[in-house]
Amino acid sequence: MKNGGKLAILVIILVASVLGSFGWLWHAAHGQKVLEAWGSDSAMAIRHGTKVERLLLSPDAAAVENGEGEDSAKSLDVGGDTLWIDDARDITGVYELNHYQRALADDYSYEWDAEPSEVPPRWTHALRFEYKGDRKTIAFDFSGRRAFNVEKGVPLRLEEKTAGALETFLSRHDDDAPKPTAPPS
Questions:
Q1: Of 12, 44, 45, 168, which one's alpha carbon is 20 to 30 angstroms from that of 134?
Q2: Radius of gyration in angstroms for the set of CA atoms belonging to the chain, rounded to a whole number
Q3: pLDDT (tens digit, 9 = 90+) per residue, 49-81?
Q4: Where are the beta strands (DSSP E) in 17-158?
Q5: Burial of 35 (0-12, 13-18, 19+ CB in 10 A)
């Protein structure tokens, strides 16, 4: 029984290795469809964005009359619709953001076999992710549960719970009140 401790340690290391490999494969497999739809550059920017901005979008063309509409930094082309950025706010350090970054890169956040929504899109919000000098923007139509990768031109249908939670999260950052960066105590 002198080798009992060594055997126990070996079994523990073996079990930990198997479970670690399973966990890694599990997470890699759950982002495969998003990776195929939006590309690895978008998936990396969404998941690991070093700067994240919340954009409020409006179809109001008043910005053109003010001479601001020609500036591509003030507008977005979302599936053929030109939308104006009413407000851009850096939400990089906001509590819970990392959960939504993970969700947007996870296959379970989308309905892959769903029919396209019959409701005309109403793009209200967008998230702009910056990662290693690359920018990717995802626009959201919560009434039709759509997410649209602006740079790739690819729409996806959000799962109902994901759309609701994301709309609530983004709406909390619409007003001018200071936002907490940590959970309430």
A1: 168
A2: 21
A3: 999 999 999 887 554 445 444 445 688 889 888
A4: 51-58, 75-78, 81-90, 125-131, 134-141, 146-149, 154-157
A5: middle
